[in-house]
Amino acid sequence: MMKKAMIWGISLAFVITGVRAQSLDDARKAIDAEQFAQAKGMLETLVKNKPKAGENYFYLGLVYIHNEHLDSALNVFNQGLAADPKNNLNKVGQGIVDLYNENASAAATKFAEATSGLKRRDYLELYHIGRAYIDAPQPDYQKAVEYLDQAKAKNNQDPLIPLALGDAYFGLKNNSMAYKSYRDATVLDNTLTRARVQMQVITRGSHAWQEAIDGLKQIASEVPDYAPTYRELAETYHAWANTATTSEDYAARNKEAVAFYKQYMDKTDYTVDSRIRYADFLVYVKDYEELQAQAAELAQLEDVNPKILRYLGYSAYENKQYQESKEALEKMFTRMEEERIISLDYLHLGLADINIAVEQDPVDEALFDKGIAQLEKAVAIDSSIADDLHEVGMDLVTNKKKYALAAKVFEIPAATPTSRNHVLDNFYVGFATYYGAATKQLAEEPARTEWLKKADTALGLVIEKAPTTQDAYLFRANVSNLLDDPENPKGLAEPYFLKYIEMVKEKGDSEIQRNKNRLVDAYSTIAVVSVKRGEYQKGRDLIGEVLKLDPENAWAKQTLQYLEQASAASTGGSSGQ
């Protein structure tokens, strides 16, 4: 689920409205109410008016961190430290930036520096370090508890400390200690709305959906301007939707989720950053139409977070607007740092390329192969993505009848041993390649032979891993027959056809009837090869098996008649000499 808003300041239900207040307490109240744009404006004014007060820089830096502008945050912390060297909070801020950049050792060093000379009553540095370990991209809840316990030992009257302890214990899945901590926070400050909200989050965690919703709605009715309540209502409805057993319930609950998130937006601020967070939520609830609308608007802004182009690409793909998806993602690739590119980016770009290519007449094979290369990159980063490619290949087989292209898709999970469909996708490499060759979609050499060899290997793996898969023998036989020399065959297919026939017969008459046409083809193919190899009696016997299955088979009758005439002529000719 999406990352919760960070909680740093005085956590009261009071929301700043009307005339902009200029005190630090009011800025922190705006932060708690998740009115980050308003808090940023207040703090910028405070920094301007009181340039020597380091605390103002610190909270401004935290707002930048919340909005994922780490470079700006670090710059503000550096300025704050230069302006007020004795205030250790900005040293903590520098450590928080390291923590968000996943440099835990550098963060620990700065935190140690910031806390080494604390006076007896100094506790805010400890509190904010503990808070940072909760909110970081890679949380360390146990370390957070250690710092927060130190802060509490210095000041047991600040309600933010038990509130943060509640979040840490909740992260540690110790719900009883989390609930107690939240309750302790409300005892210290009975207007602490966030603590009440978090107790309902614990209720949600026990899957008591309606109880949590009722509790959150009660809080919203009592403190209607406290925005985080509506965000938690949105996330509760979405979590509940994920347990739905019908598509109707899933859609209805997610509709409620989006409605409450819109209320949350109404009560915070419609800044670019808050709209990006709204887009984050739309990804979770899979509301791709609304996501595409929001992302398309945001993408028009200069220097917008390139993540929005990611969302535009994903949503356009889900809405079957493949060209728009491709354009958005390619633009994102040019604007986003390489280390921020994720596997799903390559996946969606690859799928967009594949769909665009297949829609062309004839198929744009160069673009299709480019899409395959993107899918391979995605799987190289995250092998679990291979699990999802089976459906892509099946769509090409069943709906588009593009067998040779489907084989290229199946080959990716077939080459990924950890894939959930590893054996099945190896089968479909063989299946799709055979039909690709049989339908002349795969006709040019040397590609045809190369793919038939791949198919033979893939079906061999299926036989090894799942030896009772009778169709694996059938398709390996068909593939082997195509690999054989048509003029001077070696009979490569025969052992696989015979094994397939044996397996069908072992299952009895009903299985024989279900596979009658395939059995006829198997016997017929072995018969033709036998005759070409001069094994005429064997050929006649095999054709006899065809006639047992299909007494009116015209080809079998004609071929058997021809063989008997040829045999008679050969015998007569010999006796006359």
UniProtKB/TrEMBL annotation:
- Pfam families (alphabetical): TPR_16
Q: Which domain of life is it from?
A: Bacteria
Q: Which InterPro entries match?
A: CellSynth/LPSAsmb/PSIAsmb (IPR051012), TPR-like_helical_dom_sf (IPR011990), TPR_rpt (IPR019734)
Q: Does the keyword Repeat apply?
A: yes
Answer whether the UniProt record assigns the keyword Repeat to this protein. yes
Q: Which Gene3D superfamilies does the record cross-reference, listed alphabetically? A: Tetratricopeptide repeat domain
Mapped TPR repeat ranges: 54-87, 520-553
Q: What keywords appear on the UniProt entry?
A: Repeat, TPR repeat
Q: What is this protein called?
A: Tetratricopeptide repeat-containing protein
Tell me which species this is from: Parapedobacter luteus
Q: What is the lineage of its organism?
A: Bacteria, Pseudomonadati, Bacteroidota, Sphingobacteriia, Sphingobacteriales
